[in-house]
Design goal:
Low-confidence stretches: none
Structural class: alpha/beta
Strand content: 5-15%
Mean pLDDT: 86
Shape: globular
Helix content: 25-40%
Number of helices: 7
Radius of gyration: 16 Å
Strand order of the largest sheet: 3-2-1-4-5
Distance between the termini: 18 Å
Number of strands: 5
Order of helices and strands: HEHEHEHEHEHH
Amino acid sequence: YLTGSSNTLIQYYSELAQRLVERFNLGPGVIVIDIGSNDGTFLKAFQSLGMHVLGIEGASKASEIAVAEGIPVIERFFGKGIASSVKASLPKEGIKLILAMNVLAHTDNINEFLTEVMELMEPDTAFVSQSHWLMALIRKFEFDTIYHEHLRYYTLHSLMQLFERHGLSIGDAEITDFYGGS
């Protein structure tokens, strides 16, 4: 699966990047990290706006495509101990945005994952995550979205409880039609 193979996703991520830049008042030179960055499609939108970007991706083919497109990538899955490697690879401090788009469902140790996210965060860093929405799956009988790579599905309430255990709080949420409802 490569994000850049879908014009709809390219457009969606480009528009979302612009909205996030405005929402969090991001300017050129800030650092944006994408966990599970795939082929770098989302990060390209931020890079085009003058931001420093870094992808973290465990799939070698997707990483190769991103690097070929000029997106720096740490080719490894996000997990225990990675925060120090990420910080060491950055040109400076100033992580303002950490992204995890449809990644939490794939994460086998979610508590370890969020601990590492917190290690990367500075007081003014925003963490933006997108997940399949359990209620959409149930209401629309979208059982075709259930497969072995998705270890769990979330409601907003379950995400709130999970994030609070790690010192995070949800400041905003929206429902999208992507992936059957996210």
